[in-house]
Model the fold of this input.
Amino acid sequence: MKKKLGPFAIQKSKLADPVPISLPAAVPRGYVDNTLYPGLLTRAAVDQDLLLDIPAWLPVPSPADPATRDNYIDDTGNFESGYIGQDVHRTAGPYVARIAEIELTEGTHSYSYKVTNTFGTNISGSNTVTFIVDRTGPYQTAGIAPRPLSMPVGHSGPLDAKYFADNGNEARFPIPNYDAFDAQLGDTWELLEGPFGDVVASGPVFPDEVVVLTLDQAKKWEGARSLYYRLRDASGNPSILPSLGLSVVIAIMPAPVLQTPGVRLALSLTGVGDRLIDRMDAAAASGMDVIIPNYVPDRSKDNLYVRLTTLHGNQQVGPIPLGSTALPYNFPVDYPVLRILYGSSNGPIALTVEYAVERGGVFTWVLTAAVIELYLFAPGPVNPAEPDLNNPNLPAPVLTGPVSALPNALDPRDAQQDAPVAVTLWSAAPLPSAGPFTIELYYGGERVDSVAVDNTTANPGDVIPMHVPWPFISRQGNGVGIPLQYRIVTTTSINANYSLVQGIDVSANVITFQQPSVVGAITTPTGQVIIGCSAVPQPSDTLMVFVPPHPLITEGMVIPLEWMAFSDDAGLTPISAASDTFTHTVNSSEVVTGFRVAVRPGSTFIKPINAASLSAGSVRIKYLVPIAGPSPVSSIETLALVRTYLSGSTPTYCDGTTWA
Done:
């Protein structure tokens, strides 16, 4: 043991008569193992006053004839140096000697004692006992932490159940050689809970020089963690610093079984959908939502990841801790990720959708990916506000009163007249000359005009004249801020580029039929009408629309009620199968009270509106009054959002059927 000192050689005095040696050596308490490590004391024994046992001697000391015992540490010979004190004995032995802790410096020491009795006439000395004080642990002289463990020989991946089964239910991590840092044959290793945690296992360093992790302990450490150990020499001295950590992944639990994902607005978990994410979908979701199917989770450990791949590369999104989140789960992917994956494409491209569950550092990827199409190209200038559909690079249209000449307003002077609209071509790239396009003008959400533009002669700043025909103005009735907007479309793209919205103030309609209302619907503080389950009572599955009384609605009139369903909140994407006209014949009492028109069954005209998305869908409702002359024949339109489902981990429609 190369770091131990001594023993010191005993030098004989040449000046004094030698003291006869007739007493046995004292025996220190606290040997490590006096056979394997002669003289080595434990750290615990020398971190306090050291006690030594001394056998009894004759003659027996008594009060009448006491004996004195002089104590020596590291005496150079003949009890002439190293004196540390005297004890007086008046009773029979055995006795206990004490060496103060301050005397127990690092290294090899000796202890002896001298006894004087018979009133000082007889003096005898003891044999010398040699012992070793060791307070230096492995690596301590270098002042560094032990180097990290190595992975088990021949293995580099996660430690799974098969690995333990193939290796006797244990993993053996080699300890780096530390001969240069006070390695000793009696050293032991201690596996720690953390860098400064409790000891969970220990064993001898030599001869195998490995730290052993058992299967039982590994089960408690499932997942990613760092392994730390400490070295301790035979005296009990630890390496002052814990080791550097070895990163390992323990994966004993079985991997989760994962099903193919879905994509909201494109592909349900049952495989239904158009398998396309276009500009409209991306705007509705501010990107895209990947539907993570149900699986058997470990909610304390599971993290979710999504990986998306196109011809332009792949993007990994996550982690999102599962926690208490309900499954299936809509995993959000922000729009910039989609834009990166779409790159410079100008048509639909394949998008591969995968997800993974990371459990304690182990990734399990779904075996069967979902493949859909991504289509973000739109004609016209680049939209810096994406995913918002309204493009600030497309200036808002300008309407002028045909008679009043009011900007973006119509008053009674403009009644019965078409309103002119000016659309100024954009100056942002790509310019209007890049390709042929059509401008479609919308008033109150209805397309009212369309102009095909010859790109070969189109220049930024050109003004394209359009108009809103009077029937559409009358159909929307009077109002403040009725939206006027245009969009750029082509025959080669399903996506459109929308301009900024211009609000139009209208008071030109002298005769106005009030908008219909939905019985049981609610109106938010901002004036938005929402149709929920309260408006579709079960089991009748019937929605009632109330038409208010008006002096021009008379007995015997047949009033058609137009129900126009849309899959988006703006009322722009129609659902023809869920749209229809319902007629009602007015009786005498209803001339005064107004009347209700039934829309049924809800399974046909309401339920399909939320089939694509629980968070999008609307209906436009208006009625027509068959009166003669130029006066308006349609009522003010009601745009209502449709949210006819019950919330839950698995949402259901109002009739109790499951949304999917």
Summary: The radius of gyration is 46 Å. The longest strand covers residues 479-490. Residues 1-15 have pLDDT under 50 and may be disordered.
